[in-house]
């Protein structure tokens, strides 16, 4: 199941990025499961990684190499997460990097590895290394869509986004792909995102822009709060357009920032919509909170409530569940009388109880939609936050209970 | 579905407590839905209540009357939670108390009201008041089992516990009942517990004992973290045995404390075992944590992880899910290398990865049991904490999605 149509937009090439894809037979023979992403010299890179205390080996290595190297290649495999694999996992990750480095004539630190798939099984280094010649042989700048398929695990659809904008007669392109069926991959490790632009952005600014965009997109989606050990999101700026992004040129900076935000939002919402068993895309806006912390605590408590999520699945305007979730979000001195809750533009809670104007029919109508907005107005300050989530369906349980049996 | 046999133990009467039960027809005609619990004069009372910011009206009133009154009666209804009902809800709660007070010749503050059932609908005061004469007419000290049924909502079985112990030739009895199918009642408000003893315990000590016992029992069970607006747990000491519990008599104090803990534990585990859709009772022990906070954060993160819970449902020893949940529990500087995880006595994780001695068959055997222990040893200090939970089954979603449709 997934929400909305499975349309992959046109993914324009980024001058300075080439992609190669091959079959290593990691989990299924013949499946495209290795992607090599080649980055032009002089490009800048930025990365954000999982906050899980148990980073997978490829995350540890990528963070290390991102600090050390003049990074030229991303090496991505699906089918095995190389997570929970101890010292051997680190050796295996390094071995794959070294093999690719040798094949293309760079150093090991120039390679960033990414793995997604089953946790706790050894990375099949030989299979991956054997697939490298084929991947390098088909390096091409127009394979983003194929790469989007090549990094899938239990995803039901490839995910990509592309935004172009013009500035003084020049076109700047941002293209990205992502994978993950929520944060919630069964025994899988999970979210990967790769985006690139032909703009010139220095490394420090690129990292700041990625961090800010990820915080408002990838870090605001949740299916059930199960953060994986492998989550990684990379942003590459090849500089090939010659258009320089800097804070000095405010107009251009704003245009670029908005375009980046849009690409990242589309990539992350694609993950939510492909969430396991998902039938609804749910936007939770918390408005007029006193602090960001309480806004997010409220939004996530509602987003993670199994009772709210099953009500969403049932298209049931069961507003007491939303109210109860807000009430247990841990906000001090929260006054029920000041709280308002809306489903789209239907007010369900105000003045300490059900809104006078509320009718079950109006609530039911919103809850039956595929896209639902839950707006919670705390009336305590001027901070707003938005998170996105899905419903909790019978299919979610079936998928996650059946996965290894 | 529920875990284990549905056996209600013998619930011995408590001298000084009488119960009366009647049908008010709140939700279903003929259903016993009103319980009056009469408490002898000179008894002491203690109570612990929901931490949800949106307390239901009966919780607010009970807390108020507990401070003010010489409490003589508990008035409990099922079928309507009188929650999310604003100012009208408070009036309705007071009206029921006043009616009972008048009927028995005490003041309103001597009555503590408790409601459980649907949120957001007005309390049917007239129906409840009409049922009071019948409830008072059958007041009897041997109706604990009937009262356990009388406070049920979607519970599939009545819940009660009784412990007796002897001290210097005297028998002290503790009897209790509870209701709730987890914290997770669909649109219902939820957990109620009522226990009584014939020991003499002064009010301050009784409150401390109840708080301590509740923290280790009722406050350590979770189905999905959805705390209700109505959770209440009361402890009554009638004093009729004449046996005085105080810290001066350490032996007797310890005996009483242990008996109270046992009654509360049985009452709370009965709720978990009757959790919606539950097929497993899961005990999560976190050992050698540095602080209570990190022990509980770890235990609850595992207990609330939908991926862990669906693996439990599937009897799938999917240890990577447990590891990933521990990793996202927010513990600073957690070292994977020092961590050990056991399923019963089967070591699944040590030295940074899957234990060498681990076999899938051994893991599968434990996961197939109805009672499962997940032991997580952090090796950071000397604090241990235990929480209890259930699996997440297809039935859980079905029950909660179908409830109002």
Walkthrough of the structure:
- The structure is a homodimer of 405-residue chains.
- Chain A has 405 residues and is α+β, with helices and mostly antiparallel strands.
- Chain A has 2 domains: 257 residues, L-amino peptidase D-ALA esterase/amidase (4-Layer Sandwich); 122 residues, Ubiquitin-like (UB roll), CATH 3.10.20.
- In chain A, the strands form 3 sheets. A 6-stranded mixed beta sheet of chain A has the order 14-13-12-15-11-16. Chain A has a 5-stranded mixed beta sheet with strand order 1-2-4-5-8. Chain A has a 5-stranded mixed beta sheet with strand order 3-10-9-7-6, sandwiched between helices.
- In chain A, strand 9, helix 5 and strand 10 form a beta-alpha-beta unit.
- In chain A, helix 2 runs parallel beside helix 3 and helix 7 packs across helix 9.
- The two termini of chain A are 20 Å apart.
- Chains A and B meet through helix 2, helix 8, helix 9, strand 14 and helix 11 of A and helix 2, helix 8, helix 9, strand 14 and helix 11 of B.
Query: What is the CATH class name of the largest domain in chain A?
Result: Alpha Beta
| Low-confidence sequence ranges of chain A | 183-188
In the CATH classification, which architecture of the largest domain in chain A applies? 4-Layer Sandwich
Class by alpha and beta content of chain A? alpha+beta
Distance between the termini of chain A: 20 Å
Query: Assembly state here?
Result: homodimer
Count of runs of 4 or more consecutive helical residues of chain A:
11
Supply Rg of chain A.
22 Å
Fold-level CATH name of the largest domain in chain A: L-amino peptidase D-ALA esterase/amidase
Q: Quick check: average pLDDT of chain A?
A: 89
- Characterize the overall form of chain A: globular
Biggest interface reads: A-B, 64 and 64 residues
What pattern of helices and strands is seen along the backbone of chain A?
Answer: EEEHEHEHHEEEEHEHEHHHEEEHEEH
Superfamily at the CATH H level of the largest domain in chain A? L-amino peptidase D-ALA esterase/amidase
Please give the domain count of chain A: 2
GO molecular function (chains A, B): L-glutamate N-acetyltransferase activity; L-glutamate N-acetyltransferase activity, acting on acetyl-L-ornithine as donor
Pathway (chains A, B): Amino-acid biosynthesis; L-arginine biosynthesis; N(2)-acetyl-L-ornithine from L-glutamate: step 1/4; Amino-acid biosynthesis; L-arginine biosynthesis; L-ornithine and N-acetyl-L-glutamate from L-glutamate and N(2)-acetyl-L-ornithine (cyclic): step 1/1
Catalytic activity (chains A, B): L-glutamate + acetyl-CoA = N-acetyl-L-glutamate + CoA + H(+); N(2)-acetyl-L-ornithine + L-glutamate = N-acetyl-L-glutamate + L-ornithine
GO cellular component, one term (chains A, B): cytoplasm
